[in-house]
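Progress narrative, Year 2. Work on Probable septum site-determining protein MinC from Methylobacterium komagatae advanced from sequence curation to structure prediction during this period.
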Amino acid sequence: MTQSSAARPPIRFRGRSFMATVLAPVPPVADWFADLDALCRRAPAFFAGRPTILDLTGLSLTREDLDGLVAELTARDIPIHGIEGAPPGMLGPGLPPSLSGGRPAGEVSTPDAPVPEPTTRTVPAKSLIIDTPVRSGQTILHLEGDVTVLGAVASGSEVIAGGSIHVYGALRGRAVAGASGNPTARIWCRRFEPELVAIDGLYKAADDLDPAFHNQPVEVRLVEDALKLTLLDQNR
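Result:
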């Protein structure tokens, strides 16, 4: 006996917005890749779990050139989710889909200075305090130490710190701690509702997080190369 079609729920369509990073290579592409590699050395987790769009506007590429460009980015753990500005007919099987109509969200700041080599002298880390909420579409990037947010971190925003991240409100966006290669960094928040959390390059997206921690005060840290979540009221 087959189930009546009337008993099945109707198909539902829902829209959802995601914040993506747009990479726009400039010629000579080899020099552009050298700059990209330098950024990845300064902030290894910069692209962790981040949707990325490739903008080809202004580039003269063959299909072979484009295949090589996408392969080079994939080899750097930067998967491309869509392509803008490609000539008609260039995209096809084996390449990300064509995208258009995205709304610009402003420039994403990147670190200018390389991470210093370790020395025998201890240099105090510099902390950054954000005394206003982090709005959707906003990126806070501070690789010199901890970041403390006195308000909330909105969905569609992100905080990237070389040290630990402290959020005194709700964490609804992305929190990337230890981005300069610090496995001892931690993430603390009063209300745990993130899109993604990461420490030292290891990350978990919202779908991979235990729902028992949702909307709770939580600490995130690395234990034996795995992210561990702990309720703060059970850890003190």
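The chain has two domains: 21-84, 128-234. Helices lie at 29-42, 63-75.
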